[in-house]
């Protein structure tokens, strides 16, 4: 029983990591349709933000907590710069965007190597995240529980922004009909930039969280970029709730298969299952439905 | 209020509007008539700022707004209701109106004033706009434009594809609007359009082929010119 519960938590934990990695993409790719291959490098920037914060602030706990909003701002600013300088010119050319942002990703990795060195660096987990937490039925690593909580806060915050605020209404309006939004008085360029800031900022937060699971290096983000796209596509492009379900679904699936096989085999199996799923349901778990599309 | 001066508009290398001059006076109603493909919608999109003329200029109260983006023209009192009952389909009817009120000011008061004109909409406020009928969507589209409290409303075929009972309601609403603001209207129902309009422009192949004042006599002339 303990093993099953342990594996179940491992799946939820993996799902929360995937969700954090994919949540920003759900905005920039899912809502705006931008294939940003540098999204992983925004995660890497968030991770290095945590590393820098820890070098400046001696208390690892305070440094980590501060690194979360700092990582959001660093990722967000990088996203805005990328959007304003390159992506804005390519909104109708997705393949160009893919190639250009891939190039930007390589440049950012090299910048990280030049600034922080090629070897990976470690971010110390604060003492209150070092051990395990006894949940009564099973023991779980505190760091993974923290990431799960962070993912829940991030997705709840994003959902509230999108559904309850004027900015959220503006973002959804621009996504659904750009020309109509412009003629309704919405500055679509400013909205694009804000959307990219939030999406890229979420990648920064994901990067901070990843420092609790392993060392930080220039290729940290690129290890997650394919999984993140997979989550958004499987969940249904443009659907935040689909992203949440897909992230936890894939996390649980991978942990379940891993239990009786190996991590590599589980990853291959999950990829294969997603491909089969998308053959049967190309629109993903959820699709946008209107009277005309129903 | 709105002047188009020698406006040429094209898509790529193809010019579809050639040297059009058009005036919409303050508080006036102007109808643009013509067959499909004559360039009417292209002209209206340029007036709203969605297309930039290749040459010529668009003036608003004497100010050259040719290079202003659509949302900047909205701030100067221009509202645009495009063809095809367009809405934000995944937003509720309420949020379709709030997104406009958010950026243009006016808040709930502006929405409430507009809803008074469209009694069909208040019961539908919580419904997603994509699930409305064509007539309801068109009423929402006009309501959304009115939330900006415009001085000029540009309407592109507002009764197209709408069931006849709702067409009468929309025509009534447009007639009422004409007492509060200038109206630039493209409409296939010649009798209604020219009955409401103080002036008309007839377009053929991207050019103005005839102009005149509105009224029943004009409707006869336009029908004859369009050979309907």
Task: Report what the structure shows.
Chain A: This is Urea ABC transporter permease subunit UrtB. Chain A: Keywords: Amino-acid transport, Cell membrane, Membrane, Transmembrane, Transmembrane helix, Transport. The complex is a heterodimer of chains A (294) and B (228). Chain A has 294 residues and is mostly helical. Chain A has one domain. Chain A is built from eleven helices and two strands, in the order H-H-H-H-E-E-H-H-H-H-H-H-H. Chain A has helices spanning 2-31, 39-56, 60-85, 94-116, 142-164, 166-176, 178-183, 188-210, 222-235, 240-260, 263-280; strands at 132-134, 139-141. In chain A, strand 1 and strand 2 (139-141) form a beta hairpin. In chain A, helix 1 runs antiparallel to helix 8, helix 2 crosses helix 8 and helix 3 runs antiparallel to helix 8 (188-210). Mean pLDDT of chain A is 88; it is low at 289-294. Chain B is α/β, with parallel strands linked by helices and 228 residues long. Chain B has one domain (2-86, 152-226): Rossmann fold (3-Layer(aba) Sandwich), CATH 3.40.50. In chain B, 37% of the residues lie in helices and 27% in strands. Chain B contains eight helices and ten strands. In chain B, the strands form two sheets. In chain B, strands 6-7-8-3-9-10 form a six-stranded mixed β-sheet, with helices on both faces. In chain B, a hairpin with a 2-residue loop joins strand 1 and strand 2 (14-24). In chain B, helix 3 (93-104) packs parallel to helix 5 (134-147), helix 4 crosses helix 5 and helix 7 crosses helix 8. The two termini of chain B are 32 Å apart. The chains are: A mainly alpha (294), B alpha/beta (228). At the A-B interface, helix 6 and helix 7 of A face helix 2 and helix 3 of B.
């Amino acid at each position: 029983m303990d093993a099953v519960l342990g594996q179940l938590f491992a799946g939820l934990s993996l799902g929360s990591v995937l969700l954090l990695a994919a949540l920003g993409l759900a905005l920039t790719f899912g809502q705006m349709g931008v294939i940003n291959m540098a999204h992983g490098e925004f995660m890497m920037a968030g991770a290095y933000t945590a590393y820098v914060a820890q070098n400046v602030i001696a208390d690892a706990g305070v440094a980590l907590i501060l690194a979360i909003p700092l990582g959001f701002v660093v990722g967000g600013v990088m996203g805005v710069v990328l959007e304003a300088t390159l992506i804005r010119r390519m909104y109708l050319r997705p393949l160009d965007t893919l190639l250009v942002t891939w190039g930007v990703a390589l440049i950012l990795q090299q910048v990280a190597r030049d600034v922080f060195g090629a070897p990976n660096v470690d971010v110390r987990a604060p003492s209150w995240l070092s051990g395990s937490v006894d949940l009564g039925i099973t023991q779980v690593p505190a760091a993974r529980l923290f990431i799960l909580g962070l993912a829940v806060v991030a997705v709840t915050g994003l959902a509230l922004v999108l559904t309850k605020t004027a900015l959220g209404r503006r973002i959804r309006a621009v996504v659904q009909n750009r020309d109509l939004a412009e003629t309704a008085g919405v500055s679509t360029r400013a909205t694009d930039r804000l959307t990219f800031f939030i999406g890229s900022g979420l990648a920064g937060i994901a990067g901070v969280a990843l420092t609790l699971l392993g060392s930080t290096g220039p290729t940290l983000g690129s290890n997650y970029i394919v999984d993140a796209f997979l989550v958004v596509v499987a969940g249904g492009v443009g659907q935040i709730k689909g992203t949440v379900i897909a992230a936890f679904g894939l996390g649980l699936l991978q942990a379940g298969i891993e239990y009786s096989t190996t991590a590599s085999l589980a990853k291959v199996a999950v990829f294969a299952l997603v491909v089969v799923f998308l053959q049967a349901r190309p629109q993903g778990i959820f699709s946008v439905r209107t009277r005309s599309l129903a | 209020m709105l002047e188009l001066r020698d406006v040429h508009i094209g898509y790529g290398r193809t010019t579809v509007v050639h040297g059009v001059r058009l005036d919409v006076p303050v508080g006036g109603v102007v109808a643009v008539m013509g067959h499909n493909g004559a360039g009417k919608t292209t002209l209206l999109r340029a007036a709203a700022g969605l297309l930039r003329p290749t040459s010529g200029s668009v003036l608003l109260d004497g100010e050259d707004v040719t290079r202003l983006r659509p949302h900047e023209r909205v701030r100067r009192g221009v509202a645009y209701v495009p063809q095809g009952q367009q809405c934000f389909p995944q937003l509720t009817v309420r949020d379709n109106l709030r997104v406009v009120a958010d950026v243009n000011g006016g808040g709930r008061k502006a929405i409430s004033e507009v809803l008074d004109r469209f009694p069909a909409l208040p019961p539908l406020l919580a419904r997603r706009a994509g699930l409305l009928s064509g007539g309801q969507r068109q009423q929402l589209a006009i309501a959304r434009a009115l939330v900006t409290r415009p001085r000029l409303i540009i309407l592109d075929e507002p009764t197209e594809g709408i069931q006849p009972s709702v067409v009468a309601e929309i025509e009534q609403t447009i007639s009422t609007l004409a007492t509060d603001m200038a109206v630039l209207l493209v409409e296939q129902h010649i009798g209604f359009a020219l009955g409401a309009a103080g002036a008309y422009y007839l377009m053929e192949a991207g050019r103005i082929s005839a102009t005149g004042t509105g009224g029943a006599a004009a409707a006869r002339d336009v029908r004859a010119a369009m050979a309907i």
